[in-house]
Amino acid sequence: MEIVMPDVQLLALAPEIILIIVAFLMLLFSPLLGGENTKSGPKVGGIVSLIALTAAFVINLLIGQNGQSEIITFGGMIAKDSFSLYFNALVIIAAAFSIIISFDYIDKFGIKEGEYYLLILFSTVGMMLMGSSTDLLSIFISLEIMSIPIYVLVGFSRNNLRAREASFKYFILGAVSTGIFVYGAALVYGSAGSTNLAAIADALLAKPLYNDPIFMLGSAFLISGFLFKISAVPFHMWTPDVYEGANLPITAFMSVGVKAAALSAFIRFIVYDLAITGDSWVLALSLVAVATMVLGNSAALAQSNLKRLFAYSSIAHVGYIIIALIAATESAIASVLFYLLIYIVTNLGIFAFLIYFSKKENECESIDQLAGLGYSHPIMAVCMGIFLFSLAGIPPTGGFMGKLFLFIAAVESGYVTLVVIAVIASGVSVYYYLKVMMSLFEKGKKTEENIKNPYAALVVFIAAIITIYLGVMPGFFIELAKRCALSLF
Amino acid sequence: MDNVIWIIPLLPLVGFLINGLVGRRLPDRLVAIIGVSLPVASFFIAVWSFLELLKLGDEGVLTSTLYTWIVSGDFVVNLTFRFDQLSAVMALVVSGVGSAIHLYSAGYMHDDKSFSRYFSYLNLFLFSMLVLVLAEDLVLLFLGWEGVGLCSYLLIGFWFDDMENAKAGKKAFIVNRIGDLGFFVGMALIVITIGTLNVPEMKNLLEANPGLLTAGMATAITLFLFVGATGKSAQIPLYIWLPDAMAGPTPVSALIHAATMVTAGVYMIARLGFLYVLSPTTMIIVALIGSLTALYAATIGMAQNDIKKVLAYSTISQLGYMFMAVGVGAFASGIFHLMTHAFFKALLFLGAGSVIHAMSGEQDIRNMGGLRKKMPITFWTFLVATLTISGIPPLAGFFSKDEILWKAFSTHLGSIGILFWAIGLLSAVITAFYMFRLFFVAFTGESRASEDVKKHIHESPFSMTSVLILLGIFSVIGGFIGVPELLGGSNHFEHFLAPIFPHLGSRFDAHSAHTWEIILLALSLVAAASGIFLAYLMYVKKTDIPKVFVKKYNALYQLVYDKYRIDELYGAIFIRPFFVLGVIFSSIVDSWIIDGIVRIVTMATAKLGRLFMSFQGGDVRVYGRVLLGGLLLILIIVVFGRV
Q1: In A66-135, which ranges are continuous DSSP H helix?
Q2: How many domains does chain A have?
Q3: What is the ipTM of this complex?
Q4: C-beta atoms surrounding A193 within 10 Å
Q5: Cβ contact A280–B620 (<8 Å)
Q6: Does A426 touch chain B (CB under 8 A)?
């Protein structure tokens, strides 16, 4: 057997490498950075992580400006094209904001271990690699790099029963789904003779493999594996429990980072391979999309726990996104990229808001805890209103523009029925978003407390400004999303 | 963004944001300083931009594009401000008169409990109005158009504790919506036919390819746009909201409902003059509606006793003159009158405000009188304004009104111009009459106020009187920039605006035009003088004449006094049927059919939600089973589901 040394362009992976090196250094020095008796230790770790993320972000931009349209390296396992750079940027932003909103939070909740931030960094590297992976093997490996730190982070508050339970559940179900994914990859390899997405596509074009039940079985397993990570129905059951059990900053990080990363790999798989097979996967995903939208929105109606409510809300948003995945055209993928940007910013803003109003050892997670905040903290409440409007898709927020482009792209591809269902479903969603809003402005209840959490407040403001900006002047980012989506085709 | 004209509208917006967001926590003095100084600064930038524009010469124009607002295929809307000759005049008038009225308001409103709310609205209005006049694109113009409508609504109903005021605001808003619909249809037709709403681009496209618009389409577009103008500028048949709009504070009436906002329709037609000249039919309709409105509103003005109502009808009537001007193609004359009217009508309203202020809120002129000694500045400035509006030379109103009458008479549209001129001349007589009736009754003679009120009558504070004097000066000298050649002037104003407007000929040759112009001039003077004399005769010399007249022609008097009962007519024709329809819809369609569907849907959704929750028990084995069940389903569909 001939062994070929793959060509390796380390420079293309510079952002990931920086993060890994910093994370390992932090691991090495973690006894100095955290522990029972240190006071400022974890914060130093957070600041170091932020600096590393900033560096990674800048290098990511520089690679994007380089002019070279696509760098394929590691024997075709990794591709740095505009698409992956876009996702890398999203993931870095998500990680950075999650770290910022952690600063005050972990003091309040007595988290002293220095590993907290470095686990976020490891997971971020996994997410970034996922966006760049062009091979089922590298997707699988990055999936694990992303997931394992998350399992740990969910149960990071060891003394919290809820957190431990959530972590364990997530781990068990996650392990099952990983098994499903690997099995699917094996079947596809057996049928197509390669794990490389582009090579699979070549094999598909050479002979109509979609007549091959082995290949179709394999791709169904792969689809299921992806659907688990983006928490689409019926693989969603872990989501509310895990979101509720995890600490708020981790919930924020998961709800945006894991979804974006899993979607990036899923999109690649769909565009490279699935799109040239038959249309049975379209039928399956259509049913999933409808179920996801209906279940997500109607289950959210009945929630009074905010973490669960936003868990279901995030499930519903995945439903909208799947519609565009089915369309799989350039404009549909571009609309997904744009939608994800808005979704990430808005959700980070919401969780930052909840963190802002969390008290010592007591997270702000019941809808009753918001009562009257609109009068005692008007500016924060207005920002929250912007986020809620954005999730509900009401102008002039980014959420409206995102939904608009998503639905336009789907309608252009002829999926009118799905869009009609989506519009009705998002009509239903207005109810529970406004329920949160109404509670903010409930009369008669006033909480006169002095809350100081400049970090969370900063994230809330930035997110609110970006949400409005994207709703009023979406031009630049839509063009960017179009350009990045184009690099896949 | 190569120049600063975008700052002109920005400054009042800043004022609105400051006063609107935190104004309630600031001391009133600071609110006033912010509220007044930002418009003044904006005026100075407008002046500076104007000087820059002069340096550029005839073809000069300043534009500043902030960003691309809307892109939809080939249809692009940029957020662009355009400072050309026409918008320069408008911006100067709006920010100049606007600043003066802001200053006046600081004195007038000083003990109002919602001082900061007042200034935030007024600043927002100025912002919207400046956007309207500086917009290069009709979409942006429409934004300003709606913005001023909103502010008008907010300020008419400013004292909303009184239901009547709130109703007046609502009426203004609804009537304007009808006009706006016309405007919107007009814009839509332009997009369909010409393909852009950018005004200079429209002009270029039409010049390059005149076949873009058929004659019928040009008429349709311009008429729909004119419907919008009749709403905003209170012309027949949509004028009915303006008299009620006097419910707002008096400086608001001066700024919004006399000097600036109501002239937006005139401005819009002048701006789109190149479209209007494509349709002589529309031109004649515009001129006819304008002249009829001028006459009609003037007759109502004769019979009103509320000082602000008289001025309101006078405004409608003067706007009629402006529409007559743009209708006969004399766009520059229309804008000229718009400008002089802004000076003297603002002055009249502010003078009235000064009187109302002094007389503890009294607005009925029959309870006034004898104000000369007690309020000398108000008295003299009001007299100047009254002379100006009556068309006495060499005050500003004389030049602008006379020019309109002459342009109407000599219009290229043909001898129908004589009709417009005749109506205009008659209206001029009536205008002089009712204005001097107002003046004689309200200001001269013995005071008829109650003793309580009499004790308090005093001249207004300096912040108010200084504005009166300022506007008085402009009412006197404002006309000199447009002195026609006949009187030895060189009509700078018309030449300045010449690059903007299409050039239409006159139906006279130069020689006979000269003769006619002199004849008409003399007739105008006679008209003004006779109106004033009549008023003097009836309300100073023989004060029993009006009483005898009212007794003899009581039915006619009542009809005019009741504004020809048009409000009642509209009520019977439009409002009642819609109301009945509304009752039917609300009691049957809405509460049974629509609500029924909604109730079923919500019940079903809530049930569904609870059903889903019952699965979500927290048992990981159940989760695992659901997961594997789902996997099985997807496997089956993907492998066997191919159609």
Answers
A1: 82-108, 115-132
A2: 1
A3: 0.86
A4: 12
A5: no
A6: no
